[in-house]
Fold this protein.
Amino acid sequence: MANVLRKFPETMTPKELYLMLKNPDSVKMSDAKGAVLHPEAYVLFEDVNQGSGEVVKIVSIRSGGKVYATNSASFIREFDMIAEAFGNEMPDIKVTTGKSSKGRQYISCAVEL
């Protein structure tokens, strides 16, 4: 099973947690570019990539009845800072994109104003 690093709410049932970790219907965060999410629940966890055997961090966010997930390091880094700063009062977040210095697209997030 995955190693849960942070979750909200803490009182998540085993079924809710499982669906956050292994939801076959989860939406790729890259398919939600520009969307504003209201985190009803989230889980930041580590899992093993089946192909490479590498341990990767993943964040899953439930918003509007859907689960959105990503392993994007830039998204996870920013989301983790937001989650730590806001605690149980998670603000709406906007899924953002940018271009790296090498010209590659990346995904991140920001507090929606």
